[in-house]
Amino acid sequence: MGKLLRWAAIGLLVLAAIVATVWAYLRFVSPPVVELTQEQIMASLGPRFPLRNCTAVGACIELSEPALRLVEGSERIDISTRFDANLGEIQVPGRLAFSGKLRYVASEGSFYFDDLEVSQLDLEGVPPFMARMLRERGIAGVTAQLQNTPIYTFDTESRRERLAMMLLGDVRVQEGRLRIQFLRPAD
């Protein structure tokens, strides 16, 4: 019986040492990080397209074929898409490029765009008055829809990503990846 107690005490001491080592590493060395590549984000974003926004008068704008670009050191993410406006009998194809800052919704484990800025809208074969109307009115509905469409949602089946959902600290683009850093235990 004495040997069993001694081994149990040694086991508890070893377990306590492991827990203390992990805590010290997380607290003093480096907080854990999840890195998402452009490809991983695109794999999550791609199925959410096409996005379609229609008005009461029957005009519809559809965004499809998204391409994402992470810009080193930037807090913004760039996306370009195919742009198709259907104005009754008139079809207007083009390209739309925009960027946005990430907003994280912890309860969903999802990232959304905020502060969207349209950097380019190229329309093919459109009279100037119609191009102006699409820029002024059509883009507003599309950007509102984009801000309500998650660009990435953590995988709740992954223990590492579930932990990231709870302890998210900092998000930035570094070395061509979206770098999600956890909070340290004492933060």
CATH homologous superfamily label of the largest domain: Uncharacterised protein PF07273 family, DUF1439
Beta-strand residue fraction = 35-45%
Low-confidence segments? none
How many strand elements? 9
What is Rg? Answer: 24 Å
Proportion of residues in helical segments: 25-40%
Features:
187 residues; 42% strand; alpha+beta; Bactericidal permeability-increasing protein, domain 1; 6-stranded antiparallel sheet
Characterization of the model:
- The protein has 187 residues and is an alpha+beta fold.
- The chain has 2 domains: 1-30; 37-153, Uncharacterised protein PF07273 family, DUF1439 (Bactericidal permeability-increasing protein, domain 1).
- The chain is 35% helix and 42% strand.
- The protein contains 4 helices and 9 strands; from the N terminus they run H-E-H-E-E-E-E-E-H-E-H-E-E.
- A 6-stranded antiparallel β-sheet has the order 2-3-4-5-6-7. A 3-stranded antiparallel β-sheet has the order 1-9-8.
